[in-house]
Amino acid sequence: MALKIIASMCTACSACEPECPNVAIREKGGTYIIDAVKCTECEGHFDTPQCIAVCPVDGCIKKV
Amino acid sequence: MSTSTAFVSIGDLRKGRAAVSEILETAAAGCGTSGGAGKASCGSSGGPDDMPAEIWEKVKNHPCYSEEAHHHYARMHVAVAPACNIQCNYCNRKYDCSNESRPGVVSQKLTPDQAVRKVVAVASEIPQMTVLGIAGPGDALANPAKTFETFRRLQAEAPDIKLCLSTNGLQLPQYVDEICKYNVDHVTITINMVDPAVGARIYPWIFWDHQRITGIEAATILHRQQMLGLEMLTARGVLTKVNSVLIPGINDEHLIEVNREVKKRGAFLHNIMPLISEAEHGTVFGLTGQRGPSAQELKAVQDACMGGANLMRHCRQCRADAVGLLGEDRSEEFTPDKIEQMEVVYDLDKRRAYQQQVEVERQAQHAAKVAAMEAAQTGDAADAGMKVLVAVATEGHGKVNQHFGHATEFQIYELSWSPHGAAHLPPEGTVAGLGSGPAPGHAEVLFVGHRRVDLYCQGGYGEDEQLPSIVNAINDCHAVLVSKIGACPRDELKAAGIEPVDEYAHEFIEQAALTWFGSYRARVASGEITHQPRGDASIRQGAFTAGAEAASAA
């Protein structure tokens, strides 16, 4: 259970990074990546995954 | 429409609509004898006599807050704030092209450290750079750590530079204290509506309290935060500018209410900008075919707002990484690689000395304007209420000092003449009673905007295919004031009904415009020419960038 950022769609705006309750998001090679081990899809924290809610590009963050 | 969230009455809205329609009709009919209500005084072009000393001190060297200052002083933006907390239908930050210029777009995002180095490098290279703003490419306050780290360091390393930021207002109330802590003098809030029903058509969603909120609810929260933030800034004495994007059919007439509401809450300046919506930018409005306003539509809304919050008309809708005077962009001279190579010395004394020079020149421009307005005090009764626009080619310093072929934009000035005794324009039926011959009155000159055009002259010869687009951009003008112009474009402009004027080369703009206006009225009075109304003009999307110049020269 984890989310993934589609690198080709990511604008590297960094909006998702501070929203992640698990500190699972970081910048890598000009785009942002989610650490699949740390990602809980925000379960237990919020109703919806925060990175998806704040991302300006719809469809950029998907379940793997 | 939800009545509990509407902040203006229907009656007020109707009043606003009538005002816009009336002015548009006047515009359509050319220089009629009636116009918008209110005196034509643009506070942003005001001088020390128009405002309290402490406010004048804050705005006099700020190119975005003072129309007069923008001829002399430069600004820069550093792109340290990429994240945003709302989505706007006119924004898409993915698209970046060096030829493109509009808010929300940058070529390279910077860390606070890179930003500080860039500011210091630019300040040493461009001593008239007095203002540093954080305007995105996202929202300054959606990136609070990066924004305030940049301000904190700049306060220590470049203490004479004024700091400002731009925000959508959603998180503004939360950060007002922090903003004051870093002596941020100026804050710009983008406010496109004061009615959430209008807002719902502009903002698809906001990110608020860990949720994505849509529709009226989203616009209601945003509106509440914007008004609260504005009031809090006013209470703390921070100068605020309100930016509004004019979206025809969505908020055009509504912006009159926006103007009134923000003035009530203490906004210093209101900047109404045309929507940029080229399809290739990939914005929602671009893809749905929502058009931007024409030059006269924009001017009609701006004119209808006169008498409310002061209007800014010299905005170039610059990029979040722009560097230089408002009409120019020198950001490509200051890429991180180039900054690395520069020998940077932050010499405060040198900067002050240069700025004193600028001040002397500026005082001279102001004196010339006052003298020219006093000299232009007689006219013919037939001129009463006459209003014309002129386009001016300038490279800065407040002078008519650019070759027609080198202009990438024209500044637009409105000239009007009214007889004494009439506050602004004579009431119907009084014109005949004034008698013939020179009558005392006053001519006024008002900066009303600028028009971007393609470069006409490249490598010494004119590009004929560019000329029609230049004519389109200044088609509502009676004359174009330049330092020099070639024979070919001169003839074509004349054919289009625009008078090319080069006899005021290197004079101060207002002086030149008023002198030309006097001669124009004299020629109309003598029957040499007939005063004809002009049509509308189109707004070229985007602003000038160094990249565009390089690309078109290639």
Write down the domain tally of chain A: 1
Question: Share of helix among residues of chain A?
Answer: under 10%
Instruction: Summarize the biggest pleated sheet of chain A.
Output: 2 strands, antiparallel
Mean pLDDT over the full residue set of chain A: 93
Q: What is the number of helical segments of chain B per DSSP (H or I, 4+ residues)?
A: 16
Query: Which two chains touch over the largest interface?
Result: A-B, 15 and 17 residues
Mean pLDDT rating of chain B:
78
Instruction: Note the run of SSEs of chain A as H and E.
Output: EEEHE
Oligomer: heterodimer
Q: What number of structural domains do the residues of chain B give? A: 2
Q: Under the CATH scheme, which class of chain A?
A: Alpha Beta
Q: In the CATH hierarchy, what is the architecture of chain A at level 2?
A: 2-Layer Sandwich
SSE inventory with pairings:
The complex is a heterodimer of chains A (64) and B (554).
Chain A: E1 3-5, E2 25-28, E3 31-34, H1 50-54, E4 61-63
Chain B: H1 10-28, H2 53-59, E1 74-77, E2 86-87, H3 112-125, E3 129-134, H4 144-157, E4 162-167, H5 172-181, E5 186-190, H6 196-199, E6 205-208, E7 211-214, H7 215-235, E8 239-246, H8 254-264, E9 269-274, H9 284-288, H10 295-304, E10 310-312, E11 323-324, H11 336-341, H12 348-375, E12 378-380, E13 386-392, E14 409-419, E15 438-452, E16 457-458, E17 461-462, H13 467-473, E18 479-481, H14 487-495, E19 499-501, H15 509-525, H16 546-553
Parallel strand pairs in B: 1-3, 3-4, 4-5, 5-8, 8-9, 9-10, 13-18, 18-19
Antiparallel strand pairs in B: 1-11, 2-6, 6-7, 12-15, 13-14, 14-15, 16-17
Helix pairs in contact in B: 1-10, 3-4, 5-7, 12-15
Which labels suit this protein?
A: 64 residues; mainly beta; Alpha-Beta Plaits; two-stranded antiparallel ribbon; globular; B: 554 residues; alpha/beta; TIM Barrel; Nucleotidyltransferase, domain 5; 2 domains; 8-stranded mixed β-sheet
